Amino acid sequence: MSLPGEAGVSTRVIKIGGRAQGDPALAVALAAAAAAGDRVCVVHGGGDEVSQLQRQLGAEPTFLNGRRITTEGDLLVVRMVLSGTVNKRLVRVFTAAGLAAVGVSGEDGRLLTCRLFGDGALGAVGEPETVNPAMLHALFAARLVPVVSPVGRFADGRGCNVNGDDAAAAIAAALGADELLLVADVPGVLDAAGACIAQLDGEGMTALIEGGGATGGMIAKLESARRALDGGVTQVRIGNIGAIGNPAAGTTLVVHAHERRHR
C-alpha cells in the first residue's frame, strides 16, 4: 500500500527472530532494502535474552506451542529486555549501517491493543485485536524505519507480552503490506528430509501443524502467517536473512480463495 504521492513504493514488514539479530549481514540487508525504495517496518523478537534474564533472576521460562507463558512478574522482564536492551541495540546497529531507524514498542501510540490470548493459559499474553498504524505512517512519511518491540496493552491499560510473529502479522495487515517476511535461523519451512519447501498453501500449513511436521516456534510462525494472509497481506514468506534481498528465497505461504478465513 502506498502513501499519497508514493505510487509504486512497496511496504514490507520484516520480523527478525532473536537468533538472527547478531548476524552482521542483517543490518546490511535491511539498509539495502530501504535504499531500494521500500518502506520497511522491522518487528523484532528476543526470546533467548528474555529467557537468559529470567534464569538469572531465578525463574525458569516455560512455553506452550512456541509461545511464552508470561506472569505479571515475567512481563517486567519482557519489557526490560525487548523494549529496552534489544530494541535500542538494534536501533544503534541499524543506524550505524545507514538506516534512519527509530525504536518504538507496541505500547506507544496505541499501536497494539490486545485481547487475552486464547483461554488465558499463557497468562499476561495478548493477541492483537486492533492496530493503530498512524504512528508508523508518520515515521514512513519522515523517511524513518520503525523498529517495533512486541509489547502491547490490553484495553484496560495493562501491559502484555505479544508473540513477535503475531505482532508482525497484525501490523502487516493494518498497513496493507505488500509483504510480511518472517526471518528465522533456517532457510524456510523444512520437510522431513530437511529440504526447504518452496510454497505452502493453507491446507499444507494445517497438515504440518496437526501432523507434527512443525513444532515450537515454527507453529507460531505458520499460524501468524495464516492470519496475515487472511488479513489481506499480499505475500508472506519464511526464510533466513538472505531472503530479505532475494525475493525467490524461503518458503512462500499462500491461501487459495476457498481456504480464506475472513476476520
The CATH C-level class name: Alpha Beta
- The fraction of residues assigned to DSSP E strands is 15-25%
CATH superfamily caption:
Acetylglutamate kinase-like
Classify the secondary structure makeup into a structural class.
Answer: alpha/beta
Largest sheet: 8 strands, mixed
Unreliable spans are: 1-5
- CATH architecture grouping: 3-Layer(aba) Sandwich
Oligomeric state as shown: single chain
How far apart the termini lie comes to 20 Å
Rg calc: 17 Å
Question: What is the residue-averaged pLDDT?
Answer: 91
User: Given the structure, what is the number of helices?
Assistant: 8
Gross morphology is globular
CATH topology: Carbamate kinase
Give a quick summary of the entry:
The protein has about 260 residues and is α/β, with parallel strands linked by helices.
Give a description of the structure.
By secondary structure, this protein is of the alpha/beta class. It has one domain (11-259): Acetylglutamate kinase-like (Carbamate kinase, 3-Layer(aba) Sandwich). Helix content is 36%, strand content 22%. It contains eight helices and 14 strands. An eight-stranded mixed sheet has the order 5-8-2-1-11-13-14-12, sandwiched between helices. It has a four-stranded mixed sheet with strand order 7-6-9-10. The protein has a two-stranded antiparallel sheet with strand order 3-4.
